[in-house]
Every structure is written in structure tokens, then in C-alpha cells.
Amino acid sequence: MAQGPQDLDRIVRLVAERMNRRRLLQGAGGLATAAALTSVRGGAAHALIGTARPSSVTTLQEAKKGGTLVSMVVAEPTSMDIASGTGQHNYSVMCNVFENLLEYDDTGFQTRPALAESYDVSPDGMVYTFRLRQNVLFHDGTPMDAEAVKFSYQRIMDPNNEFFKLGQPFPLIDFWYEAIDPNKIEVKDPQTVVFNLKKPHSTLDAFLAWPAAAIVSPTAVRKFGADFRTNPVGTGPFMFKEWVPNQRVEFVRFDQYWKGPAALDGLVFRPIIEEQTRITELQAGNVDFAYDLPPDNVDQVKQAGDVHYFEVPLGHVWYLVMNTKTGPTADVKVRQAVAYAIDRDAIINDILNGTAVPANGPIPSVIGALYGLETAPYYTYDPEKAKSLLAEAGLGDGFETRFWVPQSGSGMQSPRFMGEAIQAMLGEVGINAQLEVSEWGSYIDTYAKGLPDDVAFAECSWFATDARNIPNLTVTCATVSPAGYNAGYYCSENVDALIDEFSRTLDATKQGEILAQLQQIIFDDVPNVYVDSQLGTAALSQKYDGFNLHPSQLLRFYTTHLA
Amino acid sequence: MAEVAQVRAVPQRVLAVSEPTSRRPPLVLQMLRRDRFAAAALTVVLTIIITALLAPVLSLDAPTKTNFGDRLQSPFSPNHLLGTDQLGRDVLSRLVWGARVSLLIGVLAAVCASTVGSLVGLLAGYFGGGTDSVIMRVIDIMLAFPYILLAIALVAALGPGLVNAMIAIAIANVAFYARNIRGIVLGLRHQAYIEAAQAAGATHARILARHILPNTIAPILVLVSLNIGWMITETAGLSFLGLGAQPPTADWGSMLADGRQFITVKYHLATIPGIMILILVLALNVLGDSLRDALDPRLRNR
Predict the structure, then answer these.
(1) Beta-strand (E) ranges in B12-69?
(2) Is residue A26 predicted with pLDDT exceeding 50?
(3) Distance from B266 to chain A by nearest Cα, in Å?
(4) Are residues A276 and B69, on separate chains, in Cβ contact within 8 Å?
(5) Which of A281, A342, A351 to mutate to test binding with chain B, by most B CBs within 10 Å of its CB?
(6) Residues 6+ positions from B197 with CB-CB distance below 8 Å
(7) Higher model confidence: residue A131 or residue B296?
């Protein structure tokens, strides 16, 4: 077990390099204000800055105590057990109750120690050694230790574990944590736990910080069994109190929280699915916090003046999938023509009312910026070029095809209106795409089976916490539908090799070089047209302060307090 | 089930209709002279139909012409009398073209459902016995599902789209016609003139075609006129759920559904198609009621 100082040095250097990059990107320093956001709306690629509001108080101890903040959540949580979450919204809520070994920093996807005090990675990237924080208690009073960490990971990953996947597991757990060998998690002493990987995964830290791998109380899981889904016990700043299905989830402050107790007395989350209702409930003061606001209501919310407004680029990409196997789009010239035919600025500035930034590849801009990828060129709107490319491909008169669009869906923004806009743009260059709209659940099922011969286009989007996730799930040969979510059947040995190399590379500069090559291949081959990364939007009543909207959309209310 | 109860009483009414009426002015004119509501309703329906038919001649923008820079305009803005929608399309143009879709689908669905439903009802009512039991149990099963749920299930099986939505609505309404017409035929088949025709050796086909069918035409018309508004609402409902008209086709139901997402920003997008659906369906129902009154001797003589 090499834990020499040179390893620590390397980690420190790696983190420092990434941090420097981000600082550079922030340009002239303190731009994190409305002015910078205006330039995001104008399409400037550099303004990838969070909207951390400087709180009027310096520490939480000085903050005014009390208050029960009422937040909305975009859908009914499926379970209070963090490991059984089925969607982003579960994590948005439960990150207040559960914590991980690592956590994301305040503005991006850099990780920092949380329940782990520090950690080392072996030079080959195969061994992670975590030293745990002392005196951390679960809400049931039992101590958080190495056994609890081992238990928590085995529970979600080891099929032989007695409590394996209680309830419905998150479908991507196997993809995200595939590198971890659940049988080779060693407890060295109560404060030290060692993970031996099956294969290298250079951005594993981003997944260790994702709430799906939260540390749960083994005592509580053993006690409640399957009922853990209604009796969650973690280490977070808030404790579970009550879940009234379809009405509210209630948390109260945990006074023995290791960072010191939160200022708020409690939290209430109310599921509000209908977008317009979020706005009316916020205006009526029935909720103190609303997020994922409809783009055309954003100006109204800002002008209302009684809320703090937040906007931050999410780790998200929205793209148009093309059938690379059959039909006209099997020809790369036609796919390039499609990329030139789509006016992304019109979609972003008009349809989405500026609540997005342009994408230039499968890596979300907020993450790509860490590697200097945000300046990479992408296709600009040029219908004449599109027409001449179509003519070169022998399709000067255009062609007819079908275009799959979901009615709504997680991360899909305004899928119908964006679909109709793209349809109109394609029509301008002679491509007649018939829209077929279906409900989200059935859309995902049929999409996962892959595009039929006569369907050239479909819409898709992904959230990510690292650079590898989206390419790895959507453009590799192994994920070609129906095996995975590569519904356009794109398969390139070079892409696969680069993703594999990225997984084995720990050096941030080299990682950036690999990603730049990857991005270039994806640019040349155009398996998909990458349209935008969504800006997360949120509004907090001015009765409160100290909140920070994070690109993960995890709604961490620990630092929030009465104004 | 108020409609069912009303129509069950039809046999007497049918006899009344078969009396010679040639000396009076045509039924529709009589009805309109007597009933101002009906006249107003007819004017509304005719205006909508004529406007819809004239859509290609009117100098309107194409209903699918997008203009992203000009989106979400309020009514009475320059060039757009009723404003523009989320993609900058002219709302007036979409409303006029959408009327064609809503009316056409509503009428076609009503014609299909009434044809099939009446035929089924005719056979069940005339032959009775085992035929009747089998047919009516199937109809009972169909009636056991709420209409809209049945239509949604059918669209789910057929796939979304206007034609499929029309087929689904037609199928879902077959039971309504079958049950009503069967009741009328049951009353007719023991009339003396039917028995006389049977005694004279007429075939079943001849009796059905020459004696029974003509006597059911009037009640079928009443049923259709009462049902067509419901059909239009249901088409709009399926489009609202994304199962009917596929974008970018303009259709009142889908306009309403899309507009709903902007209700706190530009309320006209949802309210205008909503009001149009209300007006059209109300007018059609008033007309249907008047037609029933005109055809029902008990009410007519009052």
C-alpha cells in the first residue's frame, strides 16, 4: 500500500491544477454577478460561473436561527432510501440527509473530502485509501466508521449482500461504480478503509461524491430492512421526520451534525410537477424556494424583486441523435449538413429564452471548461453550406424521415418546442422530418431499443458529474442499442480507445489532451448534434439567505438561514 | 346517462316523424323560427365551418411558419391580430386551420361511430336472442370503460396521430349508438307493419332496409347532433394529451395544451383555443337539443 508523501503531493498537484484552470476561466475574478450572466445569455463561452451569493454573515454560527424552509421538488420522490433513487429529484432532496466520503465544491464538480478526512490514490490509480473523519454520528446515534462505509458500498454493489438493492435500485449504479470491487473493500482500522478497483477509473471521485453512494447507518438498515425506504438514517445536517406521499417530505435539524448544526429548524419538500404551478406557488408565498423554472417565466421572477434569483450552467447536454447505421444520415456528409442546418442560437435565445449555453460536444461545458475544451469550435448555423453538403451526398432535393420527440422528461427542457423548431430548420434545407411525440416513459423504452431504419432523428439529454460519463454511456461500441443508450448506433474504435485511455490517465493535462482528441473525432463524425447545456434556474424568497445553486442540482440547504 | 333515457322513449316519436309532413315548411326552418337560440347556434357553427373552409383563400400566414424572433406576441400586435405562439406562429392562422382539423375529425368520427354502432344496434335489436346477448355483452364491456380511458388505450395500441385518434374515438363511441339504436329497434320490431311484412314473406334484409332503417334515421341524426360536440371535445382532449394531432399541425386541443405552459406569461395562448372549443361545442349542443325538440312530438306540441 503505497501511501508515501509523493502520492499526496501528486494529488495536491492534480487538484491545484484543476483549481487553477477554473480560476483562469473565471477571467477577471469576481464576475459571478448578473453582468456575467448577461454575457452567458449572449452566448459567451467563458462565463461558466456559478451564482454563489455572498451571504451577509460570515459563518453559520452567527446566522439567525430558526425557520422551516419550504422548497418544491420537481416530482414525487420514489423512496427516502438514497440507494433506491430513480431520478435526479430524489438526490436533490436526500442530499440533505445523507452524505458521502467526498462532496462537490461550491461551484462545480471538483471534489473535496467530506466524511473522509483525506484520501490517497495509488500511482496506478487502482487503490483508494480513505481516512475517515472522527466523531461523526449517524442520526440514530451510532458512529460513522469504516465498517459503515464498507457496508454502504456492499449494499448497493454486492449481489451477495443481505441488503443488496433494497427496493428499486438506480439503473445507472452498475455503470457508475463498475470500477469498484465490492468484495475488495478492506477495513484497516475503524477510521481507515481501502478500495481496490477492478479497473482504473480516473474520475471515480466524481462518483464517490454522488449521493447514490452515500454512507448509511448499518444499524438502521439492519433494524428496518425493507422499511429503510421510509426510515432513512444518514449523517447529514437534517434528519428525516415525515413523508406524506404526494404532499410533502419533512426534515428537522440534526443538532450533532459534525460541521455544526444548521441554522434552519427544518426543511419541507413539496412535489410540484406542473411548471406553472411552481411559479404561482412561489408568488403566493406557499413555497420559499423553487427551481427548474419555465424559461419564459424567468424574467417575471427576476422582476418580482422579492426573491434571490440563481442561474448556473448544469452538468448537462441536450442533443439530437442521428441514425448512423441506416437511412440518409448514415452518410457523414448528411449528418454534417444537419449540424449546419440547426440554428442553436435561435433555440437557446428564443425557445429557451436564454436559459442555456451552447454545447460543443458530449462533455457539458461546465465540466469541459476544467480541461480547456470550452473553446473547441462547433458547427455554426449555415443553411447554404447544409444544402451544398446535401447536394454532395446526392440528396439535393432533400429527403423524408421520422423524428422521435418525447412529450416531457428529465433534462429534456422543452422537448416539443425544440423539436418543432429543429423540424422547421431542417425543412429550410429540404429535410422533411415527421415529428412523432410520445410520453416520456414509453419514449425511453423505445429509444433504448435504438432508432428503426426509417427514423433518422431523436432527442436525448444527459446529466453528468465528470467528463467521461456521457461519452462512455452514449457513443461507445459497447453501449450500442439495445445494449445501452447509444440509439444512433455510432461505433468508433478510436473513441473507445480514447475513453479507455482517459480512464487510466490520472494527470489532468494529459486528460485534457485525450478529451480534445475525443471531441475532435466526435466533431468530424457527427454522431449527434450537440445543442445546449441547460442553465439551472432557481428562486429563493428574500426571507432567506445563504443558498448556493450547484451545477448538480443537489439542493444543499445546510448553509441557508433566515435573512 | 340522461341521453340514453331520453332516446329510449323514441319509438312514439319515430311514428310521428313518419307521418306526412309535406305541407309544413322544412323541419329545420320551422325549428329556427321557433327557437332563437338554435338560430344563433346555427349561425355560430356555420361561421366557423365557412371560415375553416375558406382558410386557404384568406390571406393568413402559413399555420406552421415559425419566426423565433417574434414569439409570444400579445393579441392586437402588428401583423398578428391574435398574437403569436411560443414558436412565433400566428395564432389566428393556427386557429382557422385548427378548426378544419377539429371539425373534420369530429364529424368523421361521428359518421364512423354512428354507421358502425347503428348497424350493430340494428342487428342486435332485430334478431334478438343469442345474437343480441352476444353483441350486447360486448357492448356492455366497452361501456364499462370510461370513454376517454378507452380512447387513450386504443391510441396507445394504434400509435399517436390524428387518424388513429379519430379511429379510437369512433370505436369508443360505437357502444353509445349501438345501445340506443337497439332500444329503438326493439320497439319497432313488434309493430304491426313489421309483422305484416314478415307474413308477406319479406326477407330479413328487406325488412331491415325498407322498414326498420328508415324509421331509425331521425333518432340517429339526433344522436349524432348531440354526440358531435362530445367528439370534438374528445379529439381536443386526446390532442391535449399529445395523442392526437402531431406537431406542427394546428389543432385546438394541442394549442390549448401548449398554451397552458405559458398561462402566467401570455394567457391568450391557452384561453383563445379554449374559448373557441367552448363556443363550438356549446353551439353544437344547442343545435342538437333543438333538433331533438323539433323531432319529438311530445315536446313539439307543447
Answers:
(1) none
(2) no
(3) 9
(4) no
(5) A351
(6) B206, B207, B210, B211
(7) A131
